[in-house]
Amino acid sequence: MKMNSFIAGICLFFSSLFSCQQKGDFKSVSAEEFSTIIDNSDVQRLDVRTVAEYSESHIPGSININVLDKEFAAMVDSTLQKEKPVALYCRSGKRSKKAAAILSEKGYKVYDLNEGFEGWKKAGKEIEE
Fold first, then answer.
1. Domains along the chain?
2. Which domain of life is it from (predicted)?
């Protein structure tokens, strides 16, 4: 009996430890859902790729703040409105998860384009060059 409660305690410890590991609270969505979300004019569109990537093409109406820039968090706070949701993306979905975690920890409501700009183009969605 003592061993079972010990094991249960260990399981509880590890489950609480790992459940706290998630960085931020944001929702990753498909291109279709992202498209619906950004149809709302209150939603801020954020491209977290490099300036060069953004310059080639991007989702219309999006602003560019490179998540790899060491001043990313400060630039976000001086550019975005915390009371409005943010829909963000990168090339494939990796960097945007990092950005989404940073923003959600700062109190922003965040939607992440799961497959990034590549998934957006593959879905045939509108781009601006």
1. 24-122 (3.40.250.10)
2. Bacteria
Q: Where would I find the beta strands (DSSP E) of 24-93?
A: 27-29, 44-47, 63-64, 86-89
Closest CA to 91 of 63, 117, 124: 117
Q: Please name which of 108, 43, 41, 40 lies closest in space to residue 72, comparing C-alpha atoms.
A: 108
Buried b (16+ CB within 10 A) or exposed e, 58-85: bbeebebbbbeeeebbebbeeebeeeeb
3-state secondary structure of 111: strand
* Token digits of residue 79: 């550019």
